[in-house]
Amino acid sequence: MNDLLAKIEANAKRLDVHVGPGRVGTLEREGAQGSVFAYLPETNEADFVSLLMPVRLQSYSASSALIPVFQQNLPEGFLRRKITQRFGKVLATDDLILLALTGANMIGRQKIVPSGFSRDWIKPLRVDVEAMMADSQAGVLFAELLDEFIGFGVSGALPKVLVQERDTIHDAQWILKVGDTSLPSLAVNEYFTMRAAAHAGLPTPEFTLSEEGTVFGVKRFDFDVAGNSLGFEDFCALLALPPERTYGGTMERVVKAIEAFTVGPERLKAKEGMIAAQLFSMAARNTDAHLKNFGLLYSGIGDARLAPMFDMVTTKVYPQYRNDIPSISIAGKKLDVADKTFVRFAQERGGMTTTGLRDMAIRIAGGLEEAAAELIVYGRAYPAHQAVCDGIVEQWKSGVQMLDNLVQGIGARRKPIKEEVAPVPQPKG
Ligand SMILES: Nc1ncnc2c1ncn2[C@@H]1O[C@H](COP(=O)(O)OP(=O)(O)O)[C@@H](O)[C@H]1O
Ligand SMILES: [Mg+2]
Questions:
Q1: Which ligand 1 atom minimizes the distance to the CA of 72?
Q2: Cβ(293) – ligand 1 distance below 6 Å
Q3: Does residue 37 sit in the same domain as residue 150?
Q4: Cα 394 to Cα 363: distance, rounded to the nearest angstrom
Q5: What is the pTM of this model?
Q6: What per-residue confidence (pLDDT) applies to 124?
Q7: Which of 114, 139, 172 is the last residue of a domain?
């Protein structure tokens, strides 16, 4: 591995960027920390590397960092620390080298490799996901996978691996993820919070929980049915922000990005989807719904759409997050209750009707109640997770109450005034 690392370091000043089957450009270091990207002259305009970077002859550059889209999938948190431990600080502090190590195996449709390397130099980890998740030792198997390789081009704080399903026709790809000691029963938490979203009719990828509840698996949505890679850009990248700014987002800017990059019916659908995701997060007591946990998915310039929901966790069940505030602001406020400001935003900026918003709140409340019933049963069956399951049910109760208040508030205003006012009884005679 150290020979390989030396080779990567030696070739990491200049990286080849591929989209689909072909090479589309070159990414190079510029100055000490900056970067420059140029398309190859023959690149087809459909093979762009980012919605923000149409194919053109003029190069793109950033003076003191990697261009944001190339930072999107850099390992963070656990995976980054692991790389530091194994290879030393140079690698973990040099984003270009980190990209060289992880770019062939990344979320989205780009593959980035040190110049001269084959685009497939990283062989995917092949796992029979169904069998692994059915195994009571899934947590141990996960740890082994994590040790096997570290070239995973995926962001996020928690330990995770990218794997390819073994022996399936379409070679489905999965992200497997675990919690850490500060987040007990995280996989159970994410599984049931995602179930609540699915029950509410919000789009989610396929997801699964290991038998003993330690590993959460989510099927990757950045592939089409034929197995071709789809472009995925999170809202941090779409707003040209580095990952460390992910908690500084506003819904106003998210909506602007949606309006800039989507066309036709997908535009309203994406805005509604983001409003639903924010309302769901408020009610599910998920304070971690930041810019990197949402994004657009596309196969080309004309079909960008909101990606399904992911990384939904009831964060407030954990003491360290109990007083946490939401991650994306609306009208300058981090709202944890869907108040008048939220309603006004949904209507005026999100293009939602009052009925649409009311139905959305009712569906989310229903989804949470359905998943809460499942959590109670699950907690009884798996005592190791019971405390967290009970805690989540408590959190959601207040969330459902908040949604009920929203529905009532909207309902009262929704009725035309004349019908609402009961006729005043007139004294007879
Ligand atoms: N189902 C999925 N398909 C494709 N990419 C995904 C999927 N789920 C998550 N991702 C990508 O992986 C990143 C990390 O996953 P996430 O669940 O958010 O981890 P963490 O809890 O560590 O933040 C996301 O920001 C997104 O880029
Ligand atoms: Mg995340």
A1: 27
A2: yes
A3: no
A4: 19
A5: 0.94
A6: 85
A7: 114
